[in-house]
Amino acid sequence: MLEHGGRLLEAIRRYGIPREQWLDLSTGINPHPYIPPELPLSAWHRLPEPNDGLEAAATTCYDNAALLPLAGSQAAIQALPRWFAETLSTENVACVGPLYNEHPAAWQTAGHRVAISASLDEALEIARIIVLCNPNNPDGRLLDRATLLDAAARLATRGGFLIVDEAFIDPHMHCSVTTAAGLSHPNLIVLRSLGKFFGLAGARVGFLFAADEIRLGLAELLGPWAVSHPARVVATAALNDRAWQASAKTTLLESTARLEGMLATVGVSSGVALFRYLPCVHAVELHKYLAVRGILTRLFENSAALRFGLPGTEPEWNRLDTALKEWKTT
């Protein structure tokens, strides 16, 4: 299993700090999640059915009906490479990195030949299938919509595909290519998630936007009832609540700017709404320094960097600020 953020139980065991005393900034999840409605008993009692309102809500929210609901975008990350291998063939795949490590791992497991490219232009030179995160995870690199659509068009001329993981895109919709996936650009595949922006990671709900053949192939591969009935009810409510979405975008952008300023005391960070990425020659030491004080960050040891999610309350902001200032004076 690959390592991810959110390994709070492991930190509790390692540092001996009780769960309620931790400030977990390791995941990049909205600290103010959408509050789900009370679920009817039928959501637990009956199997989920399609066209119960989830697909319609997602179509309206994302402005694209060419979608497939999934148990989180992770389901597509693992299933897409298998579908390509079984339906088309194994391919040379370029992942624009560094990126979410589940992507290259899944393509390698399915038998494809994977290269990590430093840029989209470099990837276009070596592969017909290109995978990237936009915004990028972990460093927050953000590519504009025109650049991505041009890349998809160039790949289409040689029968290629562009796969874009937009898990963190919601506060930056001007860069999203969701509306084009499977429609104006049939070779464009987009993954969306309710885990980050909506703060509903535990619900395990995401969407694949793609051409009919790909969606139908993945639906058959994943089998029936891919998303649980309770999760469908919660996701439908969240996608329909446009007022909450607008307020959350404003709050997240303001909070991320505040975090950027706070981290400036120890270095220059990059990132987007929901997280900041801090290269730091003393990343390992800073990670441990914060952890012994009950503040959990995501350590990228190979690249000497930390990722910071957003605190959720004023005491949490003050706690992080104090720890960073104390670190600066040591």
Placed side by side, the strands forming the largest sheet appear as: 2-8-7-6-5-3-4
H-E order: HEHHEHEHEHEHEEEHHHEEHEEEH
Q: Treating each run of at least 4 consecutive H or I residues as one helix, how many helices?
A: 12
Please give the largest β-sheet: 7 strands, mixed
Mean pLDDT: 94
Report the span from N to C terminus: 36 Å
What are the segments in which pLDDT stays under 50 over at least 5 consecutive residues? none
Helical proportion, percent range: 40-55%
Structural class: alpha/beta
Strand segment count? 13
Rg over alpha carbons: 20 Å
Beta-strand proportion: 15-25%
Shape: globular
Characterise this structure.
The protein is an alpha/beta fold and 330 residues long. 41% of the residues lie in helices and 16% in strands. The chain contains twelve helices and 13 strands. The strands form three sheets. Strands 2-8-7-6-5-3-4 form a seven-stranded mixed beta sheet, sandwiched between helices. It has a four-stranded antiparallel beta sheet with strand order 9-10-13-12, with helices on one face. Helix 7 links the parallel strand 5 and strand 6. The model has no long low-confidence stretch (mean pLDDT 94).
Structure summarized in a few sentences:
With 330 residues, this protein is α/β, with parallel strands linked by helices.
Question: What topology emerges from the helices and strands here?
Answer:
Layout: H1 8-15, E1 23-24, H2 41-45, H3 54-62, E2 67-70, H4 73-87, E3 92-96, H5 102-109, E4 113-117, H6 120-126, E5 129-133, H7 145-156, E6 161-165, E7 188-193, E8 206-209, H8 212-222, H9 229-240, H10 242-263, E9 270-272, E10 275-279, H11 283-291, E11 295-296, E12 298-300, E13 305-308, H12 314-329
Parallel strand pairs: 1-11, 3-4, 3-5, 5-6, 6-7
Antiparallel strand pairs: 2-8, 7-8, 9-10, 10-13, 12-13
